[in-house]
UniProtKB/TrEMBL annotation, chain A:
Name of the protein in its database record: U3 small nucleolar RNA-associated protein 15 homolog
A Pfam short name: WD40
Subcellular location: Nucleus, Nucleolus
WD repeat placement: 118-159, 244-285
UniProtKB keywords: Nucleus, Repeat, rRNA processing, WD repeat
Subunit structure: Part of the small subunit (SSU) processome, composed of more than 70 proteins and the RNA chaperone small nucleolar RNA (snoRNA) U3. May be a component of the proposed t-UTP subcomplex of the ribosomal small subunit (SSU) processome.
Domain U3 small nucleolar RNA-associated protein 15 C-terminal: 346-491
Function noted in UniProt: Ribosome biogenesis factor. Involved in nucleolar processing of pre-18S ribosomal RNA. Required for optimal pre-ribosomal RNA transcription by RNA polymerase I. Part of the small subunit (SSU) processome, first precursor of the small eukaryotic ribosomal subunit. During the assembly of the SSU processome in the nucleolus, many ribosome biogenesis factors, an RNA chaperone and ribosomal proteins associate with the nascent pre-rRNA and work in concert to generate RNA folding, modifications, rearrangements and cleavage as well as targeted degradation of pre-ribosomal RNA by the RNA exosome.
Principal subcellular localization: nucleus
Keyword Nucleotide-binding recorded: no
TrEMBL record, chain B:
Protein name stated in the entry: WD repeat domain 75
GO biological process entries: positive regulation of rRNA processing; positive regulation of transcription by RNA polymerase I; rRNA processing
Keywords: Nucleus, Repeat, Ribosome biogenesis, rRNA processing, Transcription, WD repeat
Subcellular location: Nucleus, Nucleolus
Domain WD repeat-containing protein 75 second beta-propeller: 342-665
Organism phylogeny: Eukaryota, Metazoa, Chordata, Craniata, Vertebrata
SMART domains given in the database record: WD40 (SM00320)
Region (Disordered), start-end ranges: 763-810
WD repeats: 53-95, 201-232, 246-287
Length: 528, 833
């Protein structure tokens, strides 16, 4: 006696992007915390020392946030105009920021009033940074100059006037106290050495440079400007290594993940892309609600902080790792587990007579009903909200099975308003899905046949039927458009392919789109 | 063209075992079933066929135990004879010649020396009217007896044996006509008839399908077309009869049986569910679902221990009375429509074709046994007539047998056609095929042909399918696109078309460098390496129906059969037509091991076979009028051992057998004279010759026999247990005896244990005297023990005898004597007596 064969649920190829380890890693963040700032968030900088506070520069203020706090732990408000580029020193004690009023202010993290005010620029200062010896400050300004300042006596050490447009980004070397790089809207990057009066290297980016990043090894320099992210090899004299064009609007900010393996870029097109730094392929993508101006990652990638033009600061924290969860759960489960293991570990002795118990076949609910030929109940179980919403393929497979048994009509008939509207809403949700269409069209036709007499009696059902009709009309138009496009493509391919000598004209590999598992690579015209 | 007398067409295996109700022996150990022209005796415990009772010359239509002797059985046949058999030994006891074709047989313990048979009412065999005739069997010792005392009992009855039955203690006989129940009482010589209306109110059909009678009460159970069972009572009055109705089956009840005590009623039908009704408590039912094909017959053993059901898929299921399946005897399934080609599985050399619905069956031709069924569709089969089911329509193996491709389809209508292409990989661990890829809707139209290239060494990675949608597709085995744990799967590699013509057939050349696809009138030749169209060949008018590349030395030829009754041979080197001949080829086949090709031609209602080499003008072999109707399924089966026949006519059979299925679904093959002689010789001489395989049984028994046969070869010290001349004959006898008549194993066991002991003792004898002493003491104890069990045999004296026989004997000789006595073969003497 053969056992009951359960309904075959076809496995459809997963649509959309493939799940890789990378996506799992980057998906493992909680839902973002959103904080409204006073204006567009132009810069975010993490303190290099614990507790890893971060400074958020927005409009005329700089807020300091704790890593897990949602309220600012500290606020610097002594700016006359829009503040720019609030950055921590490498010991986390001092913070420097530029301002629209051309004054560079230096703050003690614990104080409120500026310790030093560096005046000398004539226009807004967008770039500020500490050199690696902690005693100097680099600034870059819209007056086309960049300066080095001494902190103890707040004196201007040097001024470089090589750029021919606004300087909007700059970074100091962490290994050498004299080296720094600036990027300007004149499309060029310049590497300066404080020991000489001129730039030592000039690199043409090709677009106004918005952001700069040095690798921890400082052999590679990353620049962002226009839609491009470019990587330069500094050791080879600024040779271009790779050019990435994955955004469709200006790239505004760059960040490196903590282990230096991934590069992140944020853009006005509202995306943050994650690149693998060995292959320079995009491995993940984050979507944000508004154009992104600034981006920063906490050490160990514990959180991603993004600032946007709509003055929203979005903070994503990493979920606690699985191991921590497991150890917590383990404690609770232990006693019952021990009992279970004891029974399991019983090894029959040599002359024990083993009584084998027939293995009970586990059947899904709908299969149990199908086995008993309860067709309506089987359809009801398959239409349960959970299955209907999450796994429509199960519902469709049950409908297909009922159709195969010739009892679909019986299963669909005799339903009240509520059940019918449930059926119709399932049809509306899934009818135009190419994977399910052949099965569901049969079902839809049967429903119309059965219930045509009651049309007009229930406003709910009537509304859904009208919805279904409009859905089908839209789908028909859509399919017609697709066919037109296909025809155009065929013409183009036919004219572009070289003529083949042999008397065969009917071959065109391009037309025969490789069909894999999916049934409907060619659009099907639905008969309404 | 010459007819060759020394190559003969023979039936090969796979006979129908579900034609008539099987009979279970009284002790439930044997099952007798009519199978073509012989009665097969199966063991109910092991499912093995013990022997076939051969003698009838036409289809056997009934098997029945003789009521007066439970070791004998009657069988009746369309050849007009009833034969009486001793089925345990397979001996024909008597043949009663009746003279008319017999369609069914009944007997009752009450009617000694009389059997009841169903024969046509008129002598011409085409008559639709049948009668029940009582035959008095003459009592005489002759082998062939002519039974002349015939007397008609009932006339105008159904030819179906299930439609008539004996009543309680043989007092009356009941027969059902389409809408009438007729009861004939033997005592009163009177018959009553009860009629039913054609249709009842609900539209069900009241037609009778089968009938059975309660063994101890006056109750008749009848099955009906609409699935109802009626229990008739009080039918010895014309007016006051009553019936009650039971209804569970949703379509016709095909068989009904009461258990011997009358406590249960068994019924079965298309649903393939055996229903057991409690007699008088009909609301209580037991079910045994999913038995396989539709139940056609149910039979019950006389002791009630076993039931057995015959199924439409050529299967007999043996069921214990606790409603549990205990054994399944499965014959070659020969459905009405074999949709797939006949194929040979390259690994096991099993014949593969459609089996149970939605399955492929693997049938061993050597052992004439079904190996297993492979579930292709993997869906619950709904037993309901008129339902459109998924059918396996096409299957193909690759050359190494590691891949199997199957196509299943449902619904014939074009817009609703459901197609699945499945690819199965052979799993070495499971020794079976495992589903690798399912491609739903691989084409938009029906698939017309499917073929793998013939790469023998490497892994097959390509499959070509052609379809009515005007395309052919090449499917390729591809490594998974992403580094996940999934294995490689198949996906579409190329889609080809030619002037929107419909491709009908495709074929790979012997080295797989060329693919020929027949697009109606045009044959296109492609190279699979780059998918370029190399050339086109055509011979209008008439579409190409079948394509075949030559093999080996003839691999430059491409043969095509067209619908305009032409067989064309193209030379691929010159791209020109080599020769063409006019014949209506229904099937073209190439032998995979030689250059030979077989063409089955349909000519004037029957099929002719031509075997030829594409390069030679004269056919090697031809056979006119092979069978009636078209042959559409045939296969070359490679031989295990090559024949070395030099005879010109049978040379083509040297490498392969040729099997084919006729329109009536008979599996036939060709056999040479030499082979036939060998077969008959081997069947005559059942004695085990020296080239018996080294089975464990042979190791035990054969070694012993060797010792018996060449005692001189043994060392002086070795024991020569028995010098009786009858001993080797006794062992021969033992080997020829059917296993079920042998003495119990304890007899055999002691003998084998003894024979083993000797070889162990030998070294110890030579080496240590002390041990010998101890052993001999032990043996004395042993022999004492044996004596007790053999008290009834006076010729064996207690062990004291050896002591007084001769004091001069050495110790060794005494031991020899003892051992000699212990090897007791008296049971064999008993057998010989």
């Amino acid at each position: 006696m053969a056992s009951y064969k359960p309904t075959n649920i076809p496995v459809y190829p997963k649509l959309g992007e493939k799940v890789t380890e990378e996506t799992l890693y980057w998906k493992n963040y909680k839902t973002p915390i959103q904080i409204k700032e006073f204006g567009a968030v132009s810069n975010i900088h993490f303190s290099p020392v614990t507790p890893y506070n971060f400074a958020v520069t927005a409009f005329t203020r700089i807020h300091l946030y704790g890593l897990l706090s949602q309220e600012p732990v500290k606020t610097f408000t002594r700016f006359k105009d829009t503040a720019y580029c609030g950055r921590f020193r490498s010991d986390g004690q001092l913070l420097v920021a530029g301002c629209e009023d051309s004054v560079v202010r230096l703050f003690d993290v614990s104080g409120k009033v500026a310790l030093r005010m560096f005046k000398g620029h004539t226009k807004a200062v967008h770039v500020t940074d500490f050199t690696s010896d902690r005693y100097q400050i680099l600034t870059g300004s819209d007056d086309y100059t960049c300066c080095l300042w001494d902190i103890p006596n707040s004196a201007q050490l040097n001024t470089y006037q090589e750029h021919t447009d606004y300087i909007r980004c700059g970074v100091t070397s962490q290994l050498n106290r004299d080296l720094f790089v600036t990027g300007s809207y004149d499309h060029s990057l310049k590497v300066f050495d404080a020991r000489v009066d001129k730039s030592v290297m000039t690199i043409n980016h090709g677009h106004p440079v918005e952001s700069l990043l040095l690798y921890p090894s400082e052999g590679l320099l990353v620049s962002a400007g226009g839609r491009y992210v470019r990587v330069w090899d500094l050791l080879k004299g600024g040779q271009p290594l790779v050019s990435l064009k994955n955004h469709h609007k200006t790239v505004t900010c760059l960040a490196l993940s903590s282990n230096g393996q991934r590069l992140l870029s944020g853009s006005l097109d509202r995306h943050v892309k994650v690149y693998n730094t060995t292959s320079y392929k995009v491995v993940h993508n984050f979507d944000y609600p508004a154009a992104i101006l600034s981006l920063a990652l906490a050490p160990e990638d514990e959180s991603i902080v993004v600032g946007m033009t709509n003055s929203i600061l979005s903070i994503k924290h990493r979920k606690p790792s699985e191991e921590a969860k497991e150890t917590a759960g383990h404690q609770r489960r232990r006693p019952s587990y021990r009992v279970y293991a004891h029974r399991k570990s019983y090894v029959p002795k040599q002359d024990d007579y083993l009584v084998s118990k027939p293995v009970r076949q586990h059947l899904a609910k709908y299969d149990k009903q199908l086995k008993k030929f309860n067709v309506s109940k089987a359809l009801d179980t398959a239409l349960e909200t959970w299955i209907r919403g999450r796994k429509p393929e199960i519902t469709v497979a049950v409908i297909r099975e009922l159709d195969r048994r010739g009892t679909l009509k019986n299963a669909l008939a005799g339903r009240d308003e509520q059940e019918l509207s449930r059926l119709l809403s399932f049809l509306i949700a899934n009818l135009v899905d190419a994977r399910f269409a052949p099965v569901l069209i049969t079902a839809a036709e049967m429903i119309l046949d059965i219930y045509q007499s009651i049309i007009g009696q229930s406003p709910v059902v009537d509304k859904q039927l009208l919805h279904l009709q409009s859905l089908l009309e839209r789908e028909l138009d859509y399919q017609k458009d697709l066919l037109e496009v296909l025809g155009m493509l065929d013409t183009m391919f036919a004219s572009s392919l070289p003529k083949i000598e042999l008397p065969c004209s009917g071959i065109s590999t391009s037309n025969g789109l490789p069909q894999g598992q999916s049934t409907a690579s060619r659009p099907q015209i639905l008969a309404a | 063209m010459v007819e060759h007398g020394d190559v003969r067409v023979v039936h090969k295996g796979g006979s129908k075992i579900n034609f008539r109700e099987p009979a279970l022996s009284t002790d439930s150990r044997f099952l007798l079933c009519a199978s073509g022209e012989s009665v097969k005796v199966f063991s109910t415990a092991t499912e093995e066929c013990l022997h076939a009772l051969q003698g009838h010359t036409d289809l056997i239509t009934g098997v029945l135990l003789r009521p007066s002797n439970h070791l004998q059985a009657y069988s009746c046949s369309l050849d007009g004879t009833v034969r009486l058999w001793d089925f345990t030994d397979g001996i024909l006891i008597r043949t009663y010649s009746i003279g008319y074709p017999i369609y069914g047989i009944y007997a009752s313990a009450k009617h000694e020396g009389v059997i009841f048979i169903i024969t046509p009412m008129h002598t011409d065999t085409n008559s639709e009217l049948f009668q029940l005739v009582a035959v008095h069997l003459p009592q005489c010792g002759e082998q062939l007896v002519e039974a002349k005392e015939l007397s008609a009992v009932l006339s105008n009855i159904s030819s179906n044996p299930a439609a008539s039955a004996f009543g309680r203690e043989g007092q009356y006989i009941v027969s059902a006509k389409p809408l009438q129940l007729e009861v004939y009482f033997f005592k009163k010589h009177k018959s009553y008839s009860f009629f039913l209306k054609k249709d009842n109110q609900k539209g069900g059909k009241n037609t009778f399908t089968c009938i059975t009678c309660h063994p101890t009460e006056d109750c008749i159970a009848s099955g009906h077309e609409d699935g109802k069972i009626r229990l008739w009572r009080n039918f010895n009055h014309r007016k006051e009869y009553t019936y009650s109705t039971l209804h569970w089956h949703h379509s016709a009840v095909s068989s009904l049986r009461f258990t011997p005590e009358g406590t249960n009623l068994l019924s079965g039908g298309v649903e393939s569910v055996l229903v057991q009704w409690r007699y008088n408590q009909e609301s209580q039912r037991d079910f045994l679902p999913r038995l396989g094909g539709a139940i056609t017959h149910i039979s019950v053993s006389p002791d009630g221990a076993l039931f057995c059901t015959s199924h439409s898929d050529n299967k007999i299921t043996i069921i214990q009375s606790c409603v549990k399946v205990s054994a399944v005897i499965q014959g070659l399934v020969k459905g009405d429509r074999i949709r797939t080609d006949l194929m040979i599985e390259p690994r096991s050399k099993a014949l593969v074709l459609n089996g149970k619905p939605g399955h492929l069956q693997f049938y061993s031709l050597q052992r004439d046994k079904l190996l297993y069924n492979l579930d292709i569709v993997q869906q619950e089969y709904i037993h309901e007539s008129g339902l459109e089911q998924f059918e396996v329509v096409m299957a193909a193996f690759d050359a190494s047998g590691s891949w199997l491709a199957t196509v299943e389809e449902r619904k014939q209508k074009a817009p609703e056609l459901e197609l699945n292409l499945k690819l199965w990989a052979f799993d070495d661990q499971k020794q079976s095929f495992v589903l690798n890829t399912t491609i739903s809707a691989p084409h938009e139209g029906r698939i017309t042909a499917l073929c793998f290239p013939h790469v023998s060494d490497g892994q097959t990675t390509m499959l070509v399918s052609t379809s009515r949608d005007g395309h052919f597709k090449a499917w390729q085995l591809a490594a998974p696109a992403h580094t996940e744990d999934e294995g490689p799967s198949w996906s579409c590699d190329f889609l080809g078309a030619y002037h929107s013509l419909v491709p009908e057939c495709c074929c790979f050349s012997a080295d797989s460098s060329l693919l020929a696809v027949g697009f109606q009138e045009v044959v296109t030749v492609w190279t699979p390496a780059s998918w370029e169209l190399l050339t086109t060949l055509s011979q209008p008018p008439g579409a190409v129906r079948d394509l075949c590349f030559g093999r080996l030395s003839c691999s430059k030829y491409l043969l095509g059969a067209t619908t305009s009754r032409l067989l064309c041979c193209w030379n691929l080197l010159t791209c020109s037509l080599e020769w063409v001949t006019s014949m209506d080829v229904s099937l073209l086949l190439a032998d995979p091991l030689s250059e030979n090709m077989a063409a089955f031609c349909f000519e004037a209602g029957s099929t002719d076979l031509f075997v030829f080499k594409p390069g030679e003008p004269r056919p090697l072999f031809s056979h006119k009028a092979l069978c009636s109707g078209r042959v559409t399924h045939a296969v070359f089966v490679p031989r295990e051992v090559m024949l070395e026949s030099c005879d010109e006519a049978s040379q083509w059979l040297n490498c392969s057998h040729l099997y084919f299925l006729t329109q009536s679904m008979d599996l036939l093959t060709f056999i040479t004279k030499a082979e036939e002689d060998k077969l008959t010789a081997s069947s005559k001489q059942l004695v085990v010759s020296d080239d018996v395989a080294m089975t464990p049984f042979h190791l035990l028994l054969g070694k012993h026999r060797d010792q018996l046969e060449n005692p001189q070869a043994e060392s002086r010290l070795s024991v020569e247990p028995i010098r009786q001349p009858s001993s080797s004959a006794g062992i021969n006898e033992l080997l020829q005896m059917p296993a079920h008549v042998l003495p119990s194993a304890s007899f055999l066991c002691s003998m084998f244990v003894q024979s083993l002991l000797i070889s162990v003792n030998k070294p110890s004898e030579q080496n240590k005297e002390k041990e010998e002493e101890m052993e001999s003491e032990k043996e004395e104890e042993d022999s004492d023990g044996e004596m007790e069990s053999r008290i009834s045999r006076p010729e064996h004296m207690p062990s004291g005898e050896s002591g007084c026989a001769a004091p001069a004997l050495t110790k060794e000789e005494v031991r020899e004597l003892r051992r000699l006595k212990k090897l007791d073969h008296s049971w064999m003497k008993g057998l010989l007596d």
